[in-house]
UniProtKB/TrEMBL annotation, chains A, B:
<dbReference type="InterPro" id="IPR046335">
    <property type="entry name" value="LacI/GalR-like_sensor"/>
</dbReference>
<dbReference type="InterPro" id="IPR028082">
    <property type="entry name" value="Peripla_BP_I"/>
</dbReference>
<dbReference type="InterPro" id="IPR010982">
    <property type="entry name" value="Lambda_DNA-bd_dom_sf"/>
</dbReference>
<protein>
    <submittedName>
        <fullName>DNA-binding LacI/PurR family transcriptional regulator</fullName>
    </submittedName>
</protein>
<keyword id="KW-0238">DNA-binding</keyword>
<dbReference type="GO" id="GO:0003700">
    <property type="term" value="F:DNA-binding transcription factor activity"/>
</dbReference>
<keyword id="KW-0804">Transcription</keyword>
<keyword id="KW-0805">Transcription regulation</keyword>
<feature type="domain" description="HTH lacI-type">
    <location>
        <begin position="2"/>
        <end position="56"/>
    </location>
</feature>
<dbReference type="Pfam" id="PF00356">
    <property type="entry name" value="LacI"/>
</dbReference>
<dbReference type="Pfam" id="PF13377">
    <property type="entry name" value="Peripla_BP_3"/>
</dbReference>
<dbReference type="InterPro" id="IPR000843">
    <property type="entry name" value="HTH_LacI"/>
</dbReference>
<dbReference type="GO" id="GO:0000976">
    <property type="term" value="F:transcription cis-regulatory region binding"/>
</dbReference>
Length: 343, 343
């Protein structure tokens, strides 16, 4: 049997360094880690993660609970997962992608009962989500990407909707617009109590008021067809609106078609912003839309790091709370309002 | 200490059923599984996956090697992962999402050396990918979503490009088109030796020839700007082209803008097809584009199932090879060619 000492000797490092390199218990320079791994392979040494896990009661495995993709799923949700997996990997952890069934609490009971994972990362967190209370009650360490209405002592990383709305409003106010409309996420594609919709709606209204802009809210189109109808409604009731922020990509498609039917143009007759869409998606529109791009990979990374901090007891204090704003990426759909133009 | 017998008694099932329900060693009706899990929770019984893994030398964990997202990454790649995770979960396995670094072989050496995973699932497989040879040499069970130039004995699930091209060509030929152009994936965003680009190019050319259609290939625009330029080039050299299939979403944006600059319309003057894009993405274009949607989740599911079959030695025969065609979703960009129209 090859011992860890043999591996350390062949790699020319201390036994503690060889152990850290193979077990990921503390950071080791990449070149050193590779040398140790090569020595282990050459000597046929197989560290056994299971035996180690039995000893330490730690598996260094985290589970990301991944809801069944709904129609609105895209790049953002994938980047939560890849960001979390990357951060975990850098810190010597592994990330399980655990699909959620119709009964997430049963699923959690099953998953945490297996003794397989050290902690759980939640995403798509509802305002009244029951998963955090279950996990807290079970004593399973966890963190959230997103947050409930009252996150209490739970660690979370979420979008800073207040800062995002302020940035969006400052952008359109800076161009000289005096009235902003906001199309929120639809209640069909997203649960009515889905946090981002509630928070974005409230924060856009507040930011517009604070900046002295007139504001029109209350629309929630979830398809191209509904987006077009909502736009006709909007300009019928508010012919002086010159700027519109839309949270749903498909609704934006309908808005653009409706603008064209009026014989009008973007951005000359309407400044159009996408909210919570990637610049990649915004670049598929013509013209390329200004967007507020969510910091998805960063939120995934932060969530994993918070959870690992907690597991390693490096943070024993109060809850870790991090809010990151969306990034404003100015496209070709932003311009000053036309003088005296009405719909 | 609560024993498995206690759990079985409380749940009113045989010990072997309780074991199967908690260990996932064979399928158990969902209602029974839930009853056993509830009994286990109530009695404080904790099956230990690690102790079980040590005994059986199996962890029931698979790793999906997930490459660093490149610009072209989207829904398709996410659906490989979620499909694989779902299939694994249904069969009592867990899926690790393992991000790949710059050196995938070192990464694999590290990952498989840990003793953590029973098998590996590869995606984004290059024609001359070196990972399959490494895994075969290491004796680690694996399967591929995609395939190398010569997959040999390896299990794989991939897109059926021949059937996909035939379906696309039959669609445009059925509308009465006589000449089809094809814009392939760009060499910038995809490695030159990326299988889908090579196979799609060859199969579209072959399918067009077999259907008696004139064919124009060789274009590989990877951005909206390049898509527009390629289109100008195309109609300059082939003013009689009436149908175009495009593999890159952003290139399609440029094509649509170029058509508008000519004062022409889709689909009246050009039938435009997206290839390898989801209907969701195709629905963001105006008009909604006809698309050949990849069976991404199905391929992810198939890959995981093949690997698990192999691990459970249910398939000891020759390699498992499954090819699935893209699904033709007809949008508003398909129409018969205009009589005698040229560019």
């Amino acid at each position: 049997m090859t011992s860890l000492r043999d591996v350390a000797e062949r790699a020319g490092v201390a036994v503690s360094t060889a152990s850290a390199a193979l077990n990921g218990t503390r950071p080791v320079a990449a070149a050193t880690r590779r040398r140790v791994e090569r020595a282990a392979t050459e000597l046929g040494y197989r560290p056994n993660v299971l035996a180690r896990g039995l000893q330490s009661k730690r598996t260094r495995i985290l589970a990301l609970l991944f809801p069944a993709p709904r129609s609105g799923f895209g790049l953002t949700e994938m980047q939560f997962a890849t960001g979390a997996a990357e951060a975990a990997s850098e810190l010597g952890y592994h990330l399980l992608l655990s699909p959620e069934s119709a009964d997430p609490i049963e699923e959690l009971r099953h998953l945490t009962g297996l003794g397989l994972v050290d902690g759980v990362l939640l995403m798509e967190v509802g305002l009244d989500d029951e998963r955090p209370a279950f996990l807290a009650g079970s004593g399973v360490p966890f963190a959230m990407i997103g947050r409930t209405r009252e996150p209490g002592e739970t660690d979370y990383a979420d979008i800073d909707f207040a800062a995002t709305a302020r940035d969006a409003v400052a952008h359109v106010a800076g161009l000289g617009h005096r009235k902003l409309a906001f199309f929120n996420l639809s209640e069909d594609t997203h649960a009515a109590r889905y946090g981002p919709a509630i928070r974005a709606g409230a924060e856009f209204e507040r930011a517009a008021r604070e900046a002295g802009l007139a504001y029109v809210g209350g629309y929630r189109p979830g398809s191209a067809e509904d987006g077009g109808k909502a736009f006709e409604d909007l300009v019928g009731a508010h012919p002086d609106v010159t700027a519109l922020a839309v949270m749903d990509d498909h609704a934006a498609v309908g808005v653009i078609a409706a603008v064209a039917r009026h014989g009008r143009r973007i951005p000359e007759d309407l400044t159009l912003l996408l909210v919570l869409s990637s610049a990649r998606v915004a670049g598929m529109f013509h013209p390329r839309l200004t967007t507020l791009e969510p910091p998805s990979a960063e939120l995934g990374r932060l969530g994993a790091r918070m959870l690992i901090d907690r597991l390693q007891e490096e943070s024993q204090g109060g809850p870790q709370r991090r809010l990151l704003p969306c990034r404003l990426v100015v496209g070709d759909s932003s311009a000053p309002p036309r003088e005296g133009g009405t719909w």
